Write the structure tokens for this entry.
Amino acid sequence: MGRLIFFANPAKAWSLLSPSRCINSNVKAVISSAIPRSSIVSFSSSTSPSFARSNNAIERIRRQQRIKENDDECLKALPEAKFMIYAGGRPLLYKLDDRNRPPKLTTFSQLQDLLPENNSIANSSVFLRLLDEGDDVPLFAMSVPKQDEQLLEKIESVLNARFYDIRPALFMVPPEWSGLMTGASSLLRWHKNAKHCWTCKSPLTRNASGCVLKCSSDSCSNTFHPPTSPVGISLIEDVDKTRALLIRQAMYPPGMYSCVAGFVDPGESLEECVAREAAEEAGVEVVPDSLRLLGSHHWPVPAGSLMMGCVVATETENPSPCDHEIEAVRWFTPTELKNALEIVDKNPKLRWAKDKDPDILFVPPRGAIANTLIRSWLNERRL
Ligand SMILES: [Zn+2]
């Protein structure tokens, strides 16, 4: 992945902090006066460990954990951080014409210049992770008011970037950014919506990193973590492994087929979920123990989902769509599936195109886990 480099405003004290230096007490004083802490509840007050850079994966992960859980450590990370910016759930991306446009990151200093005086970066940003390259730069995400059109235009103009709808944006960014982008989207939406305790209705307060919300009532003290819903999504093959079964929901654009998918019910295993969804949506019985988990990724809707991608086998020869959700179920030969994949590879925006020919069959574009499953299945057949 290419490194994104931005230049901080040298007039800001933050930009003088070399990533390779430990923060001494004088610099701490500058940071404390510059970052408003008024509405941040300190969940932990232990002395922060050294702020020295990590140089291996375990150190990086442990430093991430400290930033998430220790408010002082998180506030110290802000001045050297890069930020993904969202407006009404729409991420800010580079203005490029084709695919592989990464999110446009900004520095703390740039944000201070762009945002109104009364906007607290600390209170409106959430920590995501350390970028595992170079100096382990902390990556945060923050949301700016979508109704402030003047501010949005200023951000787009100054940074030479644009806010895009998240769904098409997911198919534009390089794969290594998609999980971060969807995770940030879900985390910011959670902060926007989760304002009161489920038990006693008292206001919730956040920790510095934004990874925990806590009930403000002393007699309750509930804590809340960001929700993620598990989803089983499966490519169903016949037992001879010569055909793949895909479905068409009525809501899909004309010509598009995809894999069977659904939320894991409480108490269900992934295997049980996949077997149930295959029966419900496609009317086929899954062969026990045939499930192969090929991978997983995060998806931003509805509130944040972990999509677990599987291949399962069936002996059912004649599938049947459920009448209220699925419009069609269809076997694809490897050649037919390869054609459908090539069509969307050539035109990744096909699902949003108007006046599509329903006889031109295609599958979800790169970035969707269904695309990965189909591509993997074809790769196994050297296609
Ligand atoms: Zn409560």
The longest strand covers residues 229-238. Residues 175-193 form the longest helix (19 residues). The chain has two domains: 5-187, 229-380. Residues 197, 199-200, 202, 215, 217, 220, 222 surround zinc ion (CB under 6 Å).
